[in-house]
Amino acid sequence: MKIVKGLLLGSVATLAASSGAMAADLPVKAKAVEYVKVCSLYGPGFYFIPGTDTCIKLGGYLRMDVLANTNSDHTGNYAGAGGAQNRFTNGYTWRSREDLNVDTRTATEYGVVRTFFDATFSWTSDSYGAGAAAGSTVYSPIGTAAAPNNASAGGVAAGTVGVYYAFIQFAGFTMGKAVSQFSAPWANYPGNNFDGLVGGGGTITGVNQFTYTAQFGNGVSLALSAQDQSAYYQAGVQNLGVQGTGALGPYGASDYAGTIAPDLVASLRVDQAWGLFQASFAAHDNHAAYYGGPELTGHPDDKWGWAGQLALSIKNIPTGPGDTINVQGVYTNGATRYNIQDLSGAGAFTYFGNTSVPGAYQSIGFGIAPDSVFVSGGSQQLITTYGVRGAYVHNWNPYWNTSVYGAWAQVNYNSTAKGYICGPGGTGVGGSFGVLIGATSNLTSCNPDYSIAQIGTQTQWTPVKNLTFSADFTYTHLDQNYAGTITYPGSAAIGKPAAVYSLSNQDTYMLLLRAQRNW
Q: Are 97 and 120 in contact (CB under 8 A)?
């Protein structure tokens, strides 16, 4: 019986193994493929992420810029090698850029949850320089700081990466890096591609913020925001007791303490079919460090500055379908970047030119616009600015349009600040400007006030959808209030010798040619 029982159990095991193998060979029903579905909830270009209720849209552009008579892709020749107006000044600057953005949205019981990310990948030609050490009068061989300089630390694949926007929107809140709520909807571009217009708020590359926007219906909204001031909204708290270098040299050195308070912004907006109206306000804390470095030297008290702006856009005016007028005006006191915005170099203007003054080597123009200035033992003196900018855009037909645009900003120092800079006699002697100009200078006017005027025109051709070619010409004029001659100590880094220079107004221009394919 034991033998029979063993044979039966063995047979059962063999049959079980055999049937299992046969089952493994039988066809199995394939899992259904999840195809990407169009998401029509948020406009064209959105798709559901497979397996989720979240919609995603990929976008961006590829752009090529060629700029004439500038060392920068975004501003004119205002300072440095560009402002030197010599053999270090670029005849052209070239940039190629890819922009990539990712937009996700999910419907919830609290409303839509949105995330948005935008990054740029750029290759830009740079400036040659003499390679002299800061403050050195020794001239090094040309080309020791060769262009392009894209392979420096932080570069990727011999180029540069930038993060423009990275924010979450939920239940009326915006949290992360986005354009400031202070800025008009067109930010730096009322009718232009040139980045450096004065006369209003900017942050086209985004600023960290925490914002709540209330919608009242009929296109009316109110935004209340706290935003980071350290990356784009600090124009300088200049310690005139410390000798600075570069463009701000005559105005001491910037002397910031650590971050203590964000900028507080409020913006009321009316957006309707006829156009748009916006009123913006910002409060900006100026928080300086120590008079002399160590804590025992003391420090000036904080001073809050502020800025106010009005913006107006009028659409579909009688001159043609799609024609637009955009205009804005701004006033600041101790909050200069809300007028002379972050991409404008007009707040640190040191520009050289020709001269007919006997005995002078060349001419030079200064235009410096910090938030405040102070001396040891003194309080911060806030700088006042005001300005406007705007554009008219005319569409000739669906393929061609032309704009005319302009901007103007005035920078004023109070009497105490002028005394700090120009000395008690107003001649520069005994003031921070005297440190730069030397005893042999002959000032007939010492006044740091100045204005910047800009005018330009742009023409665009769009032969096919999302492909645009443009030409943008910008002229800039510096109207300064210094006069006479100074003994300038020279700058080996840009090839400028120590010599006598006349003080005068300056003019510069640039041409931006662009090809851009949006996708």
A: yes
Whole-angstrom Cα distance, residue 413 to residue 417?
A: 6
Taking only the tens place, the pLDDT of each residue in 467-484 is: 999 999 999 999 999 999
Task: Say if residue 139's pLDDT is above 60.
Answer: no
User: Which segments of 316-424 are extended strands (E)?
Assistant: 324-333, 348-353, 362-368, 372-374, 381-382, 384-395, 400-412
CA 435 from chain centre, in angstroms, equals: 32
Contact 278, 311 (CB under 8 A): yes
| CATH number of the structural domain spanning residue 153 | 2.40.160.10
Q: What total of structural domains would you count in the chain?
A: 1
One-character DSSP codes across 307-320: EEEEEEEEES-TTS
Residue 76: half-sphere exposure toward Cβ, Cα within 13 Å? 29
Q: Quote the Cα angle for 76-81-83, to 5°.
A: 50
Kindly state whether residue 12 falls inside one of the protein's structural domains. no
The Cβ of residue 96 has, within 10 Å, a number of other Cβ atoms equal to: 16
Do 231 and 207 touch, CB atoms closer than 8 A?
yes
User: Residue 474 has what pLDDT?
Assistant: 97
Q: Tell me whether residue 341 is in a domain.
A: yes
Asked whether 443 and 425 are in contact (CB, 8 A), the reply is no
Q: Would you give the DSSP letter of residue 383? A: P
Q: Rounded to an integer, what is the distance from CA 303 to the centroid of its chain?
A: 25
Mean pLDDT of the chain: 86
**Residues 53 and 463: beta-carbon distance below 8 Å:** no
Residue 28 placed within a domain: no
312 has pLDDT over 80: yes
Tell me the pTM.
Answer: 0.86
Q: What is the pLDDT of residue 34?
A: 61
Which pLDDT tens digit goes with each residue over 244-298?
A: 444 445 688 889 999 999 999 999 999 999 999 999 999 999 999 999 888 999 9
Position 213 in a domain: yes
Closest to 346 (Cα-Cα) out of 355, 337, 354 = 337
Write the pLDDT tens digit of every residue in 33-52.
567 899 999 999 999 999 89
The type of residue at 389 is: R
Q: Which domain holds residue 260?
A: 33-518
**What letter represents residue 315's amino acid?**
K
**Does residue 490 carry a pLDDT above 80?**
yes
Q: Which residue matches tokens 């750029």? A: 122
Residue 476 pairs in a beta bridge with 454, 508
Q: What mean pLDDT do residues 218-234 have?
A: 96
